[in-house]
Amino acid sequence: MISDKLFALAFEYKKTKLWKAMWDIEVFGVKLSGGRIGYISIMGGGGSHCALGLYVGQKGLDSLRYIVQADQFQMSPFEFHEKIIRQDCLQCAFEGKNELSEDELSEVRAYARANGIRISGKNAYPQFVRYKPNCLPWPIQTEQEQEDLCEALSAAIHMAKLLEHNVPADLGIYRIDRDVKEIALLEWQEGGYALSKMETPPMQPIVWPEPSNCNEIGLANLKKIRKSGIYECEIVQFPEPFQNGPDEPPSFPFVFMAVNIDLNYVLPVPPVKNYLEAPEELLNYFIDALWKEGLCPKELRVRDKRTLAFISAFCEKLDIIITVLKDLPVLNEVEQDFLRHFSMSETEEITEFLSLIGEMVQDGAGLEDLPPEIIEQMELLLQREDLPEELLDKAEQVLYQGRPRLAKSDFKTVKPKKR
User: Fold this and answer.
1) Which of 89, 73, 4 is nearest to 40 (CA)?
2) Domains of the chain by range and CATH?
3) What is the 3-state secondary structure (H, E, C) of 382-403?
């Protein structure tokens, strides 16, 4: 439950319209309780997203820098996506009522009624969210998060007063994308805030995780297989999130892509959620996939430091060649198809699925050669009433190959008898 204190500060902050005096890449600091430093970004100057963002500590500040550095036109879609979802902050955002959950909307309205506040206009409803790296934003959960946002909003309200007679640069507020040696710092002291300056912490280099161990039995099995094939490899993040349960934020899992350049074959390696914390899980999935397919690569080609750190020890143990190249053309095509799949509509996905099955049938495969799961999926498609007629006709043609199909009335559901 959101405290009255946080609601009150949010509505007071909105009245300052601080986003009209600052840009989102102009940052100032606030000393939080316990001596932590928070970095505040005021969003809304561009007119799209009105919010106060609080980035706590070095990790939080660097996540903001990654976003500022993200260039959609200079990066691959995977790189750009990863920069954006690396954000680590708390936000007090102002949204339309349709953007809030029923619980959030109920809380805001209850507070407004109790305090005589009339909520009107565009983006008028406060929403308090946590941006965790590699996850979708999620409602704040802890009292500490609420208290941190209260301190940030209070500091921002004071900064708005200072900017009534100053421009940001006069107070030590500069663009975070430039080489700035000092930034403004607000610290609460008896009687109010004191403004000073603090040294801007340099951006820390990324240290990519390296597996500390792996499935030794699987490794021993791979040593028995004759090495063959060159694979272009890269760790990438899914462009769509997955959620394990209703009480946790949807997250973007990581997958190790390995494609044989001669066969254009993609090794089926399952994705993982916790690659950054436990890279061993992803490595073991890679080892298992190789063993199940009866493969052991002769050479792995990579183009980035993250993938190199991930596979170096593995390749050393199996005496596999590692080659670092700037361009991996076969992998590029696979990744483009991967992204295209996630951007397809349901109708497009079904059309492609039926086309692939149709090609298999044309090449001589009979229905008995198809996995039962595929047959079941196609039969379920034929029972749907929301698909275009041309798709249903195509599914019928592929599945029944000219034989009359069952009518819907022929599909019967039998309820289990009660014991």
Assistant:
1) 89
2) 4-199 (no CATH), 216-340 (3.30.420), 344-410 (no CATH)
3) HCCCCCCHHHHHHHHHHHHCCC
Provide the sign of the torsion angle of the four alpha carbons 400, 402, 408, 412, taken in this order: negative
Structure tokens at 261: 């350049």
Joined together, the tokens standing for residue 312 give 């170096």
> Strand runs (DSSP E) across 123-262, as ranges?
125-131, 138-139, 174-175, 182-189, 192-199, 230-237, 254-260
Per-residue pLDDT tens, the chain, 419 aa: give them: 999 999 999 999 999 999 999 999 999 999 999 899 999 999 998 777 899 999 999 999 999 999 988 887 788 888 888 888 999 999 999 999 999 999 999 999 999 999 999 998 888 999 999 999 999 999 999 999 999 999 999 999 999 999 999 999 999 999 988 888 899 999 998 889 999 999 999 999 999 999 999 999 999 999 999 999 999 999 999 888 888 888 889 999 999 999 999 988 999 999 999 999 999 999 999 999 999 999 999 999 999 999 999 999 999 999 999 999 999 999 999 998 888 766 656 666 666 666 666 666 565 555 566 666 666 766 777 677 666 777 667 666 666 654 444 443 333 333 333 43
* Residues sharing a CB contact under 8 Å with residue 224, sequence separation 6 or more, in sequence order: none
- Contact of 314 with 296, CB cutoff 8 Å: no
- Locate 89 and state its tokens: 């902050």
> Can you tell me the distance from the alpha carbon of 267 to that of 170, in angstroms, rounded to the nearest whole number?
57
Q: For strand 254-260 and strand 230-237, is the pairing parallel, antiparallel, or unpaired?
A: antiparallel
CA atoms within 13 A on the CB side of 233: 30
The answer to whether the CB of 93 falls within 8 A of the CB of 129 is yes
User: Edge-to-edge strand order for the sheet containing 265-266?
Assistant: 265-266, 254-260, 230-237, 299-302, 321-324
Report the Cα 369 to chain-centroid distance in Å.
38
Q: How wide is the angle at C-alpha 172 spanned by C-alphas 62 and 154, nearest 5°?
A: 75
- Rounded Cα distance between 49 and 391, Å, is 40
Name the pTM for this structure. 0.79
